[in-house]
Each structure stands twice: as structure tokens, then as C-alpha cells.
Amino acid sequence: MRSTRVAVVAPLHFGPGAYVGGGERYPLNLARGLVAADPSVRVDLVAVGRPARVEALQPRLAVHVLEVTLPGRNEFDHVASSLVDVLEASDVVHVHQAFTRPSQVALLVAKFLGKPVVLTDHGAMTNTVEQVSGYLDLVDLVICQSRFAASQLRSAGRRVVVPGGVDDHFFRPAEKPTSRRHVLFVGRLLPHKGVDRLISALPPDLPLVVVGRPYEQRYARYVHALAATRDIRFVEDADDLALRSLYRQAWATVLPSVHRDAWGGVYPAPELMGLTALESMASGTPAVVSDAAALPEFVRDGETGFVFGSLSELRERLQALASGAVDPDAMGRRALGVVRAEYGLGVVGVRMWAAYTTIRERAGCAS
Amino acid sequence: MRILTVSNLYPPDVIGGYELACHQMTRELRARGHDVHVLTTWPRLPLRDEPGVERSLRLVDWYMRPHDAVPSDVTRLIDLRANVIDAANVGVLLRAISQVEPDVVYLWNLNFLGAYGLAGALAHLQVPVVWHLMDAVPRSAVTVGGQVSSSAGRLLSRRLRALYLACSQRLVDEIEHGGFRFGEAVRVVPNWVDPFPQDRERDTWPVAAPRLRLVSAGQLAPHKGLDLVLEMAGRLLAAGRTAFSVDLYGNGMLDHYRRMILDHELADHVRLMGAIPQDELVERLWDYDVFLFPTWSREPFAFAPLEAAARRCVSIMSRDCGNAEWGVDGVDVLKIDRGAGALAAAVGGILDRKVDLSRLGQGARRAVENSFTIDRVADSVEEALTDARALRAARPGRPEETYHLARLTEALAFDWADQNR
């Protein structure tokens, strides 16, 4: 049986020192799902960075970190000339991030090589090339991780929504019952993530754990100042095992993302999916999310978690979960069931594979 | 066969032999019954419309400009437009293909048109192409600010559905050094003389003149060996050899060579003749004994020594240039290791009558007549055009997609240039 090679291209690689957010973790999850979906699939995860290397993550799944040949303005913007060789060997190219230079170069090279191209955007934007070229029309298929994400892209081409893509093999409930002891936030410390709102709404007697690295010093200082007199712990270096434990020990994981930050800054698309909400649910812990952007699509209000609008609503929901007025275990079990049925690696991998097969058939290159 | 020929310049708007050759080959192919349409640039001169010639491409008119006087970020921008991509030119090419519906696109010199974009568009469309190479255009197409992107060269050569006609193996090697891979698709065919002149009575030195009449023609620049010519003249005079004259035709670094002539007291033996029309220049070659051509090793295959040979004017040329691949040392040319000493020794040998110039001149003319006429080369061109049509297409792209790709390439290229200001 001839294998089908899928190149999954993202600006950053997925190892230590390069991970930024869901936009980087998601392609890795997707790749694992694809490999699980069909035994003929080989996936090459492709990124640009240092040090250059090729590393087998598991059978039929390798990560290629390509050597930087055209340095960019920032780590999202580097270009590697060896991209040509990797893409030429592929049958389908799935580009992540629509508006970064390596993604745009990957799209250009892939189309030039006559490869079917799939695109998923995660919101990063490092240049204005799209505005002058309208190049999204070159994409054979846009796969969006939410209906909200689908509404954000200006493209005349085909698009499908494949929600989810959480590693539900790794993020799973503990085998033995675990006591819940904190409210949890997981994400980058950036103004649109709204941690400041969470701190403001946090009931006085509840501890909060904030997991994530600071990416903007002004905001980090602001959040730390708000947290000064509260029972709030900041964790910047949690590995996946530690993170999984923190999910399991939480009454709820909160994603308080905002369209308008503490200083009035506007974010049209603060969350295209909200991967950490799904990780929490996969760990058997309810997600409490704001009603911003794509977040309400993934949480069934009152069933698998809560969707809040105001800070008073958030405070009430957290109080209810911590006090037992709402059983976080029961809600977490329902959340787990929904994730496994709709958003897990296996489910998403099969859907992705079906989408790839369709565009390969349309391009006349399916075996 | 319906052919769309693409060239950066086209007579009467010319600079060098490349576009003259394009014109000659167009004429020859039409004479052989082919329907040839020419796509070239807006003229730099006021010209009348000419049937079969569309002058609508945009030229980056940057020939002969001194790049070292320009800031590097400006040079980079010019290189991007001239060498890499001009999306507007891709649009013009797409329209021409749509209108002409050619069996084959016959590419010539694409420098200063955004060569990579044009060739890339043809590659994406999988249109059959014959690319006639008399200069390292595919290498220039991946060169920006002096940096060559070999991966871009490899990418283009993998996708082009093309056969290549290159005027020397040296040129093939130079282009491949820039990443481009010809594989089995390249054929080395010589340049030519057109028209091949009627023979006439002529005397050679010393019967014709008391001084050995040396000539050189082309761009007056060190890489063409002009400094070596003047140094040679100085060496001969220093050795008491005075029975020679050197006439230098062409434009270029005139101030530099005027100064050299004065500084080395060569004025009685060396003259700068300026640039004169091509037909007048070739006619004058009857009146010279030796064509001096100590050019650099990157010389693909200059026309002037061929024109001289057709008139029994013998060339002394660098052993490692493209022209030398086609000549037989001591039979129809004299080859030297590039240097003023070797050049002076070769001329000295003639002055010492160790060389039978008359026999060499006849050999040179015979070689041109037998191998370097347009009808001979046109046979190879027709064969390549026919063979190119049979090349297998792999997943042709659509024209609108091709234009989008060109626009994206242009946007990315200029975004990169903006970053590097």
C-alpha cells in the first residue's frame, strides 16, 4: 500500500522553547489524530527554527525543524529554503497560520509544486501581504476549528469546520478520584486572555492557579499587582504532566477572553477555538468560558461547564462549583463524554483525513 | 507551429547580440512557415506598430548602470523587480498566451522583466517551453543583492516543462551553479552569423598594411579583457614591437580607458573608436587581421568573434571562455591562458611570422560556414520546439491562480525587502 504523505506546516516548532499557544500545539494534535485515523498516512510536521533537526515522534510522524535561511522580524517570520524539498515529497500540504511569512511561502511553494493545499488560521499576523494579494483564494480548502473562525476568513474558496483536536489520550481524568482545590487558568499572559477579569471576579476564598508565560511585560505587571493580596499562584514552567494534574485538581478551568482588554484594546478574534477549555474537559474538569468569539461553541452552558457574560455571573458560577451547589465531577464527566465524542484526536483525525481525501480526489491526485 | 517568443528587447530597440539573435531566429522560423508572435517590452524609442510584435511588457531599464553607486536597499528592490518578479508582466504574459494559444513558448532574454515570475508562470501553467540561453538568465532570476537562492533555482527547474538551448557548456555549468538543474533537457547549440557574408578578396598583414591591425569590439570593461589589451600593447611597445595598431569599438568605461591610454603612452597605437551600428561594424572587420578577445571565463559565447571569423579575421581568445569551446586552437582560432603576457606572446608570435594568419583566417571562415550559420542552428531549434510539445504536463495550474501566485510572490518579495531596509 502506498502511503500518503501529509506535510503540516506551522511557523514554530513544537519542542521546548518554541511552543507559544494552541496555534502550535493544535497541529501536533492534528498530526497524531491523522496518523491514528489511517494506517497509510505519514505526517511531516514542518517548522522553521533553531536548532535544525528531524525527529521521529512516533511511527509515521516526524517533526522537521528547518534551518533558517531568511531570518524574519520575529520567530513567526523565518523562512527556510529547504521547505521546497519537504513539500515536494508530500501529497497534501496543510498550512497553519494564514498571515505569517513561512505559512505564506509554504502556500506559494506548495501551489507552485501542484500540491493540494489546506489552510487553518490561528490568528497570528505578522504582515499585511494578504491585503494586497487576496491569496486565500489559492487555497483548495480552508479547515476552520470553529464556526466563529470560519466567519473570520475572507476567502471565496471551500471551507469546512472541523471543531476540536484535543489530545484526549493524554488529557484524561485521573484513575482515582482527585480532590479539587483551585480555580485554573491556562494560557499566555496577554491582555486579550482576560486574566485580570478572572482575578477581579474570583470569590475571595477561592485559590487560583495561573499557568502560562508572560508575553507582555505591562500586562504581566498589571496582573501581578491585582493578584498581590490574593491566594493566586503563577506557574510559568509547567510541563504537560504537571498541567494535566492541575486540570484534574481544578473545580473549573476558566477562559475569560475578551474582545476589549483592560486598556480598551480591541480584539476581533480573541479565541478561534480555546484548546485549553477542551483539555480541561478531556481531563474531566468543567470549563467556564466567556461568551467571546468561538468559546461558547465548545461549552454547553450548565451541562459541560458554563458560559458567562458578566463578572458577577463568573463569580456565581465559580462559587457554585467550589461549594458543591453544582457537582464539578458530574459536570466534568459530561464534558469528558462530549470531548471524546466530538473533539478528540481520533474523531478529528478521521474528519481531517476525509477532507484531505476529498480535495485530493478533486485535484485528480488521489491513489 | 504557433510560437510565442518572449524577449526583453527586440529590434530596433537593441543593446546586444541576444536580442538581435532573437530577431534573426524569428525571421528564420517565419521563413520556415511557423506562426511566430513576439512579446517584448514597451520600446525605449518611439516605434511604429509591427505585425506580430506586441510591445507591452515592462522593462526595468537598468542596463549599464553602475550598481556600486546605488544604496544596497535600492539595488535589492531593483533586483527583485528586474530579476525575480513583476506581477504586471506575468499578467501581460497570461493575456498573450490566452490570445495566441501557442504550441510552444520560446523564451529568450528575460533579464529586467522579472524573469523568475515569467518562467514560474509558464511552469505553473505547464505550457511547453524552449528557453534559448545566451546568458545566465535562470541564475540571474534567483539573484538578489548578489545573493543566489539555489533552492529557488531548483524549484523552478523542477517545474518547468522545458527544453533548453544553451550556447556553451560553460553557460550550462554557470547556471547550474546557481541551483538550476537542466538534467537531460539541455542541448548545447552554437551562436551564429546571419547573414553569412559573401567572401571577398582581402590581404592580411603585412601585405595589406605595415602594422598588424588588431581590433576588439563589445562592452569596454575589465571583465571583457580590455585592460589586458592595453597592458599587452604596453608590453609590446616596451619590447620595441611597434608594428601594430589596436582599435577598440564599443561603449563602457571610456574615461577609464582614455586615462589608461594616456598614462601608458599608447595613443599612437591604440584608438577608442566608439560604438557604431552593427552592420557597419561587421563590415569594418574585413579590414582587421586579428580580433582580440581575452574575455573572462563567464563569457557564454560572444557574437563579435564569430562575425570576425566569417571575415577571415582571426581571434585570439581566452582558453576557458564559451567561444573557445567551439574553436580549434591553431586551426581556426588562437587560444591563450587569460593574461596580458600570454596575449602579448600570441601577438608577438604573429609579428614574428610564426603563425600563418592567412591559413587561420580561411579556417575560421570555413568553420563559420560549416557550423555557425542560422540555417544550421534553426534545424536544432525546430527540433527542440517539436520535442518540447511532447513533454508531459504535470497538473497544470489555472491562469487566474497563476496570477494570484505572482501577486503573492511579489508581495512577499517586497515585504522581505521592506524588512531589510
List keywords for this structure.
heterodimer, A: 367 residues, Rossmann fold, 2 domains, eight-stranded mixed sheet, six-stranded parallel sheet, 19% strand, B: 421 residues, alpha/beta, seven-stranded parallel sheet, 15 helices, 15 strands
Q: What is the element layout, followed by pairings?
A:
The complex is a heterodimer of chains A (367) and B (421).
Chain A: E1 4-9, H1 22-37, E2 41-48, E3 53-58, E4 61-66, H2 83-88, E5 92-96, H3 101-112, E6 117-120, H4 129-133, E7 141-144, H5 147-152, E8 159-161, E9 182-186, H6 195-201, E10 208-211, H7 217-227, E11 232-235, H8 240-248, E12 250-255, H9 275-282, E13 287-290, E14 305-308, H10 311-323, H11 328-343, H12 345-362
Parallel strand pairs in A: 1-2, 1-5, 2-4, 5-6, 6-7, 7-8, 9-10, 9-12, 10-11, 12-13, 13-14
Antiparallel strand pairs in A: 3-4
Chain B: E1 2-6, H1 17-31, E2 35-41, E3 53-57, H2 72-84, H3 87-100, E4 104-107, H4 115-125, E5 129-133, H5 137-140, E6 143-144, E7 147-148, H6 150-159, E8 162-166, H7 169-177, E9 186-188, E10 212-217, H8 226-238, E11 244-249, H9 254-263, E12 270-274, H10 278-284, E13 290-293, H11 304-310, E14 314-318, E15 334-336, H12 340-351, H13 357-371, H14 374-389, H15 399-419
Parallel strand pairs in B: 1-2, 1-4, 2-3, 4-5, 5-8, 8-9, 10-11, 10-13, 11-12, 13-14, 14-15
Antiparallel strand pairs in B: 6-7
